[in-house]
Specification:
The chain is an alpha+beta fold. The chain is built from 14 helices and 26 strands. It is 23% helix and 24% strand. The termini are far apart. InterPro entries: Fumarylacetoacetase-like_C (IPR011234), Fumarylacetoacetase_C_sf (IPR036663), RraA/RraA-like (IPR005493), RraA/RraA-like_sf (IPR036704).
Amino acid sequence: MDPQHDARFAGLPQRPGKIVAVHVSYASRADQRGKRPATPSYFFKPSSSVAASGAEIVRPRGTELLAFEGEVALVIGEPARWVSADQAWAHVAWVTAANDFGLYDLRANDKGSNVRSKGGDGFTPIGQTLINAADIDPAALRLRTWVNGELVQDDTTGGLIFPLAQFVADLSQHFTLETGDVILAGTPAGSTVVAPGDLVEVEVDAPDTGQSSGRLQTRVVQGEGPSFDPALGSLPAVDDEQRIAAWGSEEAAGLPAAAGADESAARPALTPEVRAKLMDCPVAGLSQQLRKLGFNNVSIDGVRALPGSGKIVGTARTLRFVASREDLFKSHGGGYNAQKRAFDAIGEGEVMVIEARGDATAGTLGDVLALRARSNGAAGIITDGAVRDHDAVAAAGIPVYSSGAHPAVLGRRHVPWDHDLTISCGGTTVQPGDIIVADADGAIVLPPALVEEVVDAVLDKEAEDAWVADRISEGEPIKGLFPMNQQWRERYEAERAGGQSAGATTAGTKDGTEDGTGGSAG
């Protein structure tokens, strides 16, 4: 190590040319966020963000969501280009502790690049002691983080979704990893927000050999410098989505659970048995039974099936668009926006329900998103806006119901704002976890607590209506049969129970009266 180099790099052999960080790598972190990546993804951090152990990190004025991420840092020795996974670890000279600080107030506008949110001066403490990589098992390293002496992260590299050597081999396919370059291998669950005065410590060790990086220490201080200038770029912006991401959960952020989440967790699941019953229930029948229970505002109005789309039965996932405004589209419309996050997160048997305010003058999804939903096993998509790439969406292999087609993209009318919250679609309220059924008659929302009661009532009514239709086909008059009077009711019940008809006399003409309690087709 050159004793003359900048003190910021005291924990490294030299100033790194590149710092490459992994987005999500530990199973515990992925599970906390509800989605595991299929392959690693990365972002760059500038070498000017490096700090040594004992340095302070400044939380800028006007911000609140500075979060730590304890990580294992790999330091490249021999340059690596097109190396295999088996060869990759030989190109790592040292491992040590790192802290990948991020300012979530600036995260939304970075579109996943993390340039501003994670590139600040002092945002990458590294050190304090280098561990020889050749002496340790890369799958048996331990990573621990403390805040003010309390252990908050405790995991091992055995908990990684991808082995450390894979990062080296993967990155070497795209560019040369040079001597001194650093790879930050991601953080486990437990990352959260810290405040001025907090002391964060990170240690990487090899329990089998006793080797340790020592505790990398960073003290958080409040910035007193100038504020961000709106004339130069985006300002810090905080919403509940960023608070939850920074703190790690709604509870840790001091927020109530996301709208509908508590109710959804307590709701009965859509079991395979109930799902199969719902496939036999027409939406018209469901509507009729819900009206009997006092539910008149459960239809998603104005949506129709795209050609080739079959019936939809599933649980709701929700996506909300707000009316387009140029500054809001600039901050929320591009990159890995709420629309893309929602479609990435949708699961098997779920229905993406989209609020677009009934505005069908711009698309709310296209063929790529429809294919993504199909590949995730989603049950269907319903939007009260338009679809783009109409024919390709119709051919995507997933049922889609919309208010029409339009060639324009989001920026014309819509801004993708947030997802998995209570929305209004087609004039009715939809919460995550609601049961959605759609067929040629339209789409309807079933409160989960009522679904079993309603589905059984519909099937009973369908059986009764089929029996009545058979009698009409045999030439019986409608009077007294639809709705059934007492005599027809008795005959129906007897036949349903396996009994025989009391006689061939037309039940509706026995006393010339009707039971006026039934419904009618209208």
